## 1
Amino acid sequence: MLDVLIVDDSAAIRKILQRVLRQADLPLGQVYEAGDGVEALRALGSQHVDLVFADINMPNMDGLQLLGRIKDAEEWKHVPVIMVTTEGNESKVMAAANLGAAGYVRKPFSAEQFRQTLEGILP
Amino acid sequence: MPTLDKDKVVKSICTATGQVFSTMMTLEVVPEASYEEANSTDNVDGVVAMIGLAGSWVGGGVIHCDARLARKLYTHMLMMEGEAESDTVNADVLDAVAEIANMIIGNVKNDVEEDVGMIGMGIPSVVFGKNFATRSSGTNWIVVPFICEDAHLWVKFCLTPPASYAGGPEILGREFARVRRLYPA
């Protein structure tokens, strides 16, 4: 079972991602939510997480900072992180790739686009 | 100095708004004729979401709609069409409108970055009320009205070069020369 953490400052997007994940025919376990990078680190520290979806533009700690913290930590660096964001600036996309993001989904996204991205990442 | 192609901005607003509405809400929007608006508005009612832009150029983006459309956008975005529509504009509705603004303005920003360089985007702020006015300093706004079913939505965007492009170094240079004349070394 896959335990997932969704990190986005928009509650609406967190709900939409949950719905899309449940429709994607995945062996979904627990789904945790966080409103920013700080909350996400707290969740990672207290829960088992197999996969992270993270927005980039968020208050307190943005998605790129969060990605860097996850990939720097011995206990979390194996966890795939998929960026789900409006941000399309090439430098941000490259930064995410260089920091070790497993995938990049641009908002707005359809359930089908999302499923295809997951298929390319999950075994 | 790079310039902002207003026709390109209008086209980008139409494309981004159409994509966000069709992909995330399965709703259709029809654009109407765009226009420019001064930096303040007449008093309005409804929901206004605003996002600041800063970087190589500075400005912002706004979406504005009435309360009924805001509630409809929320129910469609969360795929709750069959459920009873909320009769209040609560925090969930405001959050959904903020995210819609984030996606529309973010995609327009991505397009104009090709011409004016990298721009950072702030966190959206949302206001709901009656009989209020908005004001921003600086340049006029490019406004694209849309019809969504029987309601109106307005998407507004403005972007202007920073002071350093608008004569900043020249003004500083002139001031420096004047001071040197008054107080020679």
## 2
Amino acid sequence: MSFYGEVSGVVFLSLFISVTSTIIASMAGMVLAIPIALKDFRIKKYIIRLAETFMSIPPVLMGLVVYLMLSRKGPLGELGILFTPTAMIIAQSLLVFPIVFGLTVSAIGTRGRKIKKNCVALGAGRRDTLILIIKECRVQLLSVAAAGFGRAISEVGAVMMVGGNIRGETRVMTTYIALETGQGNFNKAITIGVILLLVAFMVNFLLHGLSKIDEK
Amino acid sequence: MLNLRSKGRFKELLLISLCIVMAFTITACSKKERSMVLATTTSTQDSGLLDYLLPIFEKDTGIKVKVLAKGTGEALEVAKRGDADGLLVHAKAQELQFVKDGYGSERLEVMYNDFIVVGPKDDTAKLKEKTPSDAIAAFKLISTSKAVFISRGDKSGTNTKELAIWKSAGIAPNGKWYVSAGKGMGAVLQMASEKKAYTLTDRATYLSMKDKLDLDIVTEKGSGFLNQYAFIRLDDSKNKIKTKEANEFIEWMISTKGQKLIGEFGKDKYGMSLFIPNAKK
């Protein structure tokens, strides 16, 4: 395989895995976080502390947990998905989920409550209230998703462990950089490093653009 | 008007990206190619041997080999848990134990090369002069002169060999001069080059990276430097693994064609074979 063929495959896979896990984690994280942000109850404080703790979980630790779960000797071993992109998506989704959850709770907070009050006053149902809050706060929610994506695309520990850095199969940009640096191929490592930065820039630019469209 | 249109565009974008993701998931799931996972050592990957052999094997059999390059110790653990279909490693004692414990049914030698001791170009501990071929004496000299030595420190085949040499020399290496890196062969060679240190390496990885390193061979070709690589047929009674594909790969590697290709690898670039085939027929 030519260098360019390999590089584009690596970049593509990176994007695919990180975008997919960001979408999964964002949907789950936001759906769970918005109701919690709007309500006050006794264990809320602890849930938020827990989420904040998991926000800073080292990717390698998440990698280890997912590895043990998916290994053929593990509880989900029957699936046979260790060392596949699916395993990488699972690990990254689990990494991104607490970030989306925690940030959504704090982003929605006061503004969400105001909207809720108005909705209740106008006699809107629960579902309508939720939809309205999502619509009104989409700029914040998009930047939450962007933060989650940043975590996913840049981490190396978890994808290295559960993906195995298999060429053409589970090799993503970060593991590629680690491998090529180990082999002394700094040129290749730097090339991918620059692409990684460009991708991050483009995604943020795109998300920013989307929120601009909304503000108009 | 503008507002409505841009909102529509926003939804459209979301919808399109969702469709793309789904399409990928579906194609990824429906792809039915024959493949296997080979757990192997970093040296077979870092030296470029597998990158050279696997495309030819895939053309011959249609089987895609997914390479997990780990240290031998980790590769054995991965295989024990049933997460690999094939195993190509280089630490005989550990391999025999693995077979004895019932995880594998047979050990098949396939090729060898040799270990060498490399060190900084100015050779501060004078190994080239005093111990050109004796591994044990070389290690003794490194420890008495407290020259920095980088150990793989990862239970790999090379690490196992290194520890065996220290043991034969009657030295328990520790102290500031002994650095346990916990990295693959390529990364350790880099580190040795940066720190002007000595290390034990397989010849193949060293030769394939030589141009990027400030390291020379200081001790080589003595007895006890043999580095034998072997396949292990894994036991499939406990785990669902792809024994058929793995066996096809083993047969191909020990066939006349596979052995010839192994022997030819590196000749054009380095003027010598990096691995010498020695499968028993």
